[in-house]
């Protein structure tokens, strides 16, 4: 199993590096905007808070008003609610769908399964390598946030920053796990699996964010994972039981379904 | 426990949504030190059989064992004994051959690196270049090496010489002979009937998922019997000769010419033919291709 994990990470080393660089650059640019935004907070708050609620919530989640001078409000609206998760969801879904799917599509999976390695161990190794790849990208980004936030006068406790980053990473990874499971357990191609995960992820984001605009979206929004994603609450030290429940549910669902499905299905 | 290294017992496979069976009650066995050729047109069921044996596909019914181990229940253990080469060998294009072989060897649980070195030398494989930069033939060499490198008890090979140049084909045949002499059981699909006739001890012909014929090569069966190509003076003579009980009609070439095989001894066949006015008579060896074409109703590979 360790060989497969090492192999996967080695194969992906340059791509991981580019994702790390991308995440760092985006994070630093956003953090660097804080001092100038804070200085013009009055005007910016006026502009943002006069936006229609739905449009405002696309950036801020459930927050009713925004004060960009407040570091927590700034981090929530500019970094943790949309920018980082969207970037990481793209990584998670593309990797989740292809970590097994690419091998199956190119028939290199046969090369591996012709060895004395069980399907469940291979699945576990692939799942772990997906998780590790994600930990590397999000971990380095977290370190950059921890180091750079004080440099740009953003003073939030390290513990809360760590927790918010971890939740953001776990939330983003959940869509990758959905793509991974759909591909592993069924006969869906990696593209189809990724499409379903995109629909759940980004479709859910739109539904959850726009549910403030129309009443009829309020019920479907409750089924959207994004509805439970509230980085502002984590940054404020509040509990996020809905998010915990969603993450635990996805983890159990993906482990059970991918294990049962991949063990006995035909390899394409 | 089965003592045969490879046994298929009424193995069947129906793909989801398909009306017909891709593999229909196929039973065969391959003995220690035997090379079994698996012949059939495209879509006949050769690759399905091979993929079932490797547990890439789940059987609809029936069973199979490799070294006495059930291919489904003990698929991991089975693979300790098997060397496999897929039809269209797929390798990782960005890594070098050496990196890939090291990885596969580690997954196999380790093996004699010295033997890997020998194989590399024999096949003149280029292991220091990225696989994507290699020609099809050079990629096939790596495919062949990865199947042989752990010295398995059973080799399952799908079109193993596809893409190899004639020189490398000879090297492969030599390696196959060595494996056979060591007692390795080989199941090998091939489109190349000359190759099958040359390296196989036995062949099975598969059509529409059914094993329709098994044939020993070089035994006393029909492949070693001669084929007579007979031209008669008149068409009436040809018609009468067709009914001769000592002869089996193979093919009518034109209105006065037939190809026939003796049903019994050659002497009996010649005695039967001597009754007719014959313009010419040639004897030629029956080839696997003749057999194959007979079973496939004139459709060649």
Question: Could you walk me through the main structural features you see in this protein, from its secondary elements to its overall organization?
Answer:
- The complex is a heterodimer of chains A (268) and B (301).
- Chain A is globular and about 65 Å long.
- Chain A has 268 residues and is mainly alpha-helical.
- Chain A has one domain.
- Helices cover 77% and strands 0% of the residues of chain A.
- The mean pLDDT of chain A is 85.
- Chain B is α/β, with parallel strands linked by helices.
- Chain B has helices spanning 46-53, 75-78, 97-108, 113-122, 136-148, 166-181, 193-199, 235-242, 266-273, 288-295, and strands at residues 6-13, 23-30, 35-39, 61-66, 69-70, 82-85, 154-158, 185-189, 202-207, 210-216, 226-232, 247-254, 257-262, 278-285.
- In chain B, the strands form 3 sheets. Chain B has a 6-stranded mixed beta sheet, with helices on both faces. In chain B, strands 2-1-4-5 form a 4-stranded antiparallel beta sheet. A 4-stranded antiparallel beta sheet of chain B has the order 12-13-11-14.
- In chain B, a hairpin with a 2-residue loop joins strand 9 and strand 10 (210-216).
- In chain B, 41% of the residues are buried.
- The mean pLDDT of chain B is 86.
- Classes of the chains: A mainly alpha (268), B alpha/beta (301).
- At the A-B interface, helix 1 and helix 8 of A face helix 2 and helix 3 of B.
């Amino acid at each position: 199993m360790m060989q497969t994990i090492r192999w996967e990470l080695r194969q992906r080393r340059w791509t991981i590096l580019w994702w790390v660089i991308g995440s760092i650059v985006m994070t630093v640019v956003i953090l660097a905007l804080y001092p100038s935004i804070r200085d013009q907070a009055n005007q910016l708050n006026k502009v943002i808070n006069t936006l229609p609620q739905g449009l405002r919530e696309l950036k801020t989640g459930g927050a009713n008003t925004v004060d960009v001078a407040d570091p927590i409000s700034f981090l929530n609206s500019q970094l943790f609610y949309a920018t980082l998760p969207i970037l990481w969801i793209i990584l998670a879904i593309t990797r989740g769908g292809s970590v097994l799917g690419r091998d199956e599509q190119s028939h290199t999976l046969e090369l591996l399964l012709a060895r004395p390695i069980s399907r469940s161990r291979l699945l576990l190794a692939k799942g772990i390598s997906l998780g590790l790849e994600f930990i590397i990208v999000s971990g380095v980004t977290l370190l950059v946030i921890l180091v750079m936030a004080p440099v740009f006068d953003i003073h939030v406790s390290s513990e809360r920053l760590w927790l918010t980053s971890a939740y953001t990473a776990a939330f983003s990874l959940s869509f990758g796990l959905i793509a991974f499971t759909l591909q592993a357990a069924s006969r869906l191609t990696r593209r189809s699996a990724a499409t379903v995960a995109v629909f759940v992820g980004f479709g859910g984001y739109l539904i959850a964010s726009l549910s403030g605009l129309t009443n009829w979206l309020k019920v479907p929004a409750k089924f959207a994972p994004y509805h439970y994603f509230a980085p502002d609450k984590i940054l404020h030290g509040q509990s996020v039981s809905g998010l915990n429940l969603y993450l635990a549910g996805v983890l159990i669902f993906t482990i059970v379904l991918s294990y049962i499905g991949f063990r006995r299905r035909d390899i394409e | 426990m089965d003592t045969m290294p490879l046994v298929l017992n009424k193995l069947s496979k129906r793909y989801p949504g398909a009306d017909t069976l891709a593999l229909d009650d196929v039973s065969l066995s391959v003995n220690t030190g035997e090379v079994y050729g698996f012949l059939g047109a495209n879509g006949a069921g050769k690759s399905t059989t091979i993929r079932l044996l490797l547990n890439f596909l789940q059987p609809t019914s029936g069973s199979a064992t490799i070294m006495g181990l059930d291919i489904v229940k003990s698929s991991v253990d089975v693979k300790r004994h098997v060397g496999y080469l897929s039809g269209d060998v797929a390798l990782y294009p960005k890594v070098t051959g050496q990196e890939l072989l090291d990885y596969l060897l580690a997954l196999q649980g380790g093996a004699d690196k010295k033997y890997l070195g020998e194989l590399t030398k024999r096949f003149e494989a280029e292991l220091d270049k990225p696989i994507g930069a290699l020609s099809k033939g050079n990629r096939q060499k790596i495919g062949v090496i990865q199947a042989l490198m752990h010295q398995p008890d059973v080799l399952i090979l799908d079109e193993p010489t596809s893409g190899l140049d004639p020189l490398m084909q000879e090297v492969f045949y030599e390696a196959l002979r060595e494996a056979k002499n060591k007692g390795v059981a080989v199941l090998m699909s091939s489109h190349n009937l000359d190759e099958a006739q040359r390296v196989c001890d036995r062949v099975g012909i598969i059509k529409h998922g059914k094993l329709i014929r098994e044939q020993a090569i070089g035994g006393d069966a029909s492949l070693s019997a001669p084929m007579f190509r007979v031209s008669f003076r008149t068409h009436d003579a040809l018609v009468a000769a067709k009914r001769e009980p000592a002869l089996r009609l193979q093919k009518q070439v034109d209105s006065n010419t037939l190809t026939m095989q003796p049903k019994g001894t050659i002497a009996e066949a010649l005695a039967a033919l001597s009754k007719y006015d014959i313009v010419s008579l040639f004897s030629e060896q029956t080839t696997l291709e003749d057999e194959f074409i007979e079973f496939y109703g004139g459709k060649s590979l």
